[in-house]
């Protein structure tokens, strides 16, 4: 094996959790080059990986929304980059039309994808010369590692290695200060995944009592209103200014604790080895959750609203007996 292409185009949390497949591949095939194809909106996240050799991207999401000529030309140019090398294998771990088209356009005689029942869109099957699966039951993130190993003929070993290195920022956008900082990621992509404002306020007030400084990030005007509603009930809580993805990642890296619903930045916190609690209200904890002894934990059954007491127990767990926690095989640092 000399060069392999991974296709995973979206979204933030999924891409972060897919990055460990690079370390798996390079452990199995020393010296191999691993390229990654992603939507332009998430390409910067792939660049955080110290193990990826080339990041290929195009404004697919933006073109779908606006249909601008400039975006079409950018997509056309990206096809040339995509076809610059011939790959020993291409593995599509997204399984939808746009990822399948990328896999099909790239140069290789071996293009792997999921079996029909595991595809996000059945029509994606046209692009593949071989199939992997069925997906094993359990965590989706470990399932991706197993699928890539099946395609290339090896079994993934040990814990997931994210190997992240955040790029330096021109100017600092967040200062942690002297008190430990807890970031509350209250916003989600869907209403049914939200945790009640009153619950957030209750947890935040308990953390303030324990000496934490509370910060509330947001990404839209509606999310800012929700952040302000929480902050209004929590003495000293800070509603952060709007930040870029990389700026938020740096903020997370400066925190002592991250609590959030099933959303991408909570996966970033886990990958950066922060003490993290993920709250599940309407999605599957067993399928999409995060777990690391005394560092990351997921709560909720995916069918009901977890109580404040369960969140506080999870916070106690990720702060319990840190000296007894096993050494992690993750690598996370920043310039």
TrEMBL record:
<dbReference type="InterPro" id="IPR002201">
    <property type="entry name" value="Glyco_trans_9"/>
</dbReference>
<dbReference type="GO" id="GO:0009244">
    <property type="term" value="P:lipopolysaccharide core region biosynthetic process"/>
</dbReference>
<keyword id="KW-0328">Glycosyltransferase</keyword>
<keyword id="KW-0808">Transferase</keyword>
<comment type="pathway">
    <text>Bacterial outer membrane biogenesis; LPS core biosynthesis.</text>
</comment>
<dbReference type="InterPro" id="IPR051199">
    <property type="entry name" value="LPS_LOS_Heptosyltrfase"/>
</dbReference>
<keyword id="KW-0997">Cell inner membrane</keyword>
<dbReference type="GO" id="GO:0005886">
    <property type="term" value="C:plasma membrane"/>
</dbReference>
<dbReference type="InterPro" id="IPR011908">
    <property type="entry name" value="LipoPS_heptosylTferase-I"/>
</dbReference>
<keyword id="KW-0448">Lipopolysaccharide biosynthesis</keyword>
<keyword id="KW-1003">Cell membrane</keyword>
<dbReference type="GO" id="GO:0008713">
    <property type="term" value="F:ADP-heptose-lipopolysaccharide heptosyltransferase activity"/>
</dbReference>
<dbReference type="Pfam" id="PF01075">
    <property type="entry name" value="Glyco_transf_9"/>
</dbReference>
<protein>
    <recommendedName>
        <fullName>Lipopolysaccharide heptosyltransferase 1</fullName>
        <ecNumber>2.4.99.23</ecNumber>
    </recommendedName>
</protein>
<comment type="similarity">
    <text>Belongs to the glycosyltransferase 9 family.</text>
</comment>
<keyword id="KW-0472">Membrane</keyword>
<dbReference type="GO" id="GO:0005829">
    <property type="term" value="C:cytosol"/>
</dbReference>
């Amino acid at each position: 094996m000399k060069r392999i292409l991974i296709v995973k185009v979206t979204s933030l949390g999924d891409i972060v959790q897919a990055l460990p497949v690079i370390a798996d591949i390079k452990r199995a095939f020393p010296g191999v080059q691993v390229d990654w194809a992603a939507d332009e909106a998430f390409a910067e996240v792939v660049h955080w990986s110290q193990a990826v050799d080339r990041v290929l991207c195009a404004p697919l999401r933006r073109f779908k929304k606006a249909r601008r000529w400039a975006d079409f030309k950018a997509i056309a140019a990206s096809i040339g980059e995509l076809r610059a090398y011939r790959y020993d294998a291409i593995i599509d771990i997204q399984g939808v039309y746009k990822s399948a088209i990328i896999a099909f356009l790239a140069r290789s005689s071996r293009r792997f994808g999921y079996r029909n029942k595991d595809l996000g869109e059945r029509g994606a099957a046209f692009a593949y010369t071989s199939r992997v699966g069925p997906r094993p039951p359990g965590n989706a993130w470990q399932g991706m590692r197993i699928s890539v190993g099946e395609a290339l003929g090896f079994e993934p070993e040990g814990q997931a290695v994210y190997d992240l290195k955040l790029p330096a920022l021109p100017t600092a956008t967040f200062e942690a200060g002297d008190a430990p900082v807890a970031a509350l990621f209250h916003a989600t992509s869907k209403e049914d995944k939200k945790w009640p404002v009153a619950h957030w306020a209750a947890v935040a007030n308990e953390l303030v009592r324990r000496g934490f400084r509370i910060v509330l990030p947001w990404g839209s005007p509606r999310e800012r209103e929700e952040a302000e509603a929480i902050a209004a009930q929590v003495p000293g809580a800070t509603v952060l200014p709007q930040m870029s993805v990389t700026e938020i990642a740096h903020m997370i890296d400066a925190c002592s604790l991250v609590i959030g619903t099933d959303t991408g930045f909570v996966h970033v916190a886990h990958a950066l080895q922060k003490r993290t609690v993920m709250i599940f209200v309407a999605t599957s904890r067993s399928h999409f959750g995060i777990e690391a002894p005394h560092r990351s934990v997921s709560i909720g059954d995916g069918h009901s609203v977890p109580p404040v007491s369960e969140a506080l127990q999870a916070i106690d767990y990720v702060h319990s007996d840190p000296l007894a926690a096993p050494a992690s095989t993750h690598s996370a640092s920043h310039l």
